[in-house]
Amino acid sequence: MTPLPLVIDASQLAPNLDDPSLLILDLSKVATYQQGHIPHALHVDPALLLCGTAPVPNKLPSREQLSALFSNLGLTPERQVVVYDDQMGALAGRMVWTLHCVGHKRVSFLNGQLQAWTEAGLALESGVNTASASQFEARIDRSLVADLEYILAHLGDADLRIWDARTEAEYRGEKIVNATKGGHIPGARWFEWTDSLISPNDTRLKPDAELLATLRARGITPEHQVITHCQTHRRSGLTYLVAKHLGFEQVRCYDGSWFEWGNRDDTPTES
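Above: the chain sequence. Below: its structure as tokens.
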């Protein structure tokens, strides 16, 4: 099938449902998936997008873990992947980033998630779909990952923008979540992930021009190198997706996020 854009709506997905090269991944809760999902969609446990090991279990999985995950899902280079979730796009965005990290660029994000599909009058199915396994060998592109050492080494770079996707209370240090200290990485710009969406009840992305203008007002433009993060790199899965959709070319994710930064004694903070 012809490759789809990074962000698609239901009308772009529906005509391709029966194409054998299409791979639809549903990252919703199990109960949500069982109630109804897009036809042919495979359920993916979002925990498989995390390495799961201490001290920072929310980091990108290992090459071996990712090879197993995508082999079990039947991923091959020619397959067109479409992702959605029931978390306003955060987990779907993290899956997009993960696929980009292993070099698979034929992935699309369903704008508006399952609600957009049903509101378009399109049918759901129940039952559990299973994949035909493949042999996928992951190779991780580290240029899409920012670790703590990378951030510390580049904090003073004039073209670097750190995009903090948490709530304003977390950013300001007024609310501390699973960390020993609050605040934000020095120089980080705040733009909460949900502000990318039309509303909590309409989880489509805001118009591109509006998003670009809002980000520009925060000092973040496509010319910058951007590192985005949140608390565990769930919410910043969506902000990665937004940045790539808007044409940002240099985007990394800090997968350790505040769970790592806020639990160390040797990391500088502002509030």
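The two ends are 49 Å apart (CA to CA).
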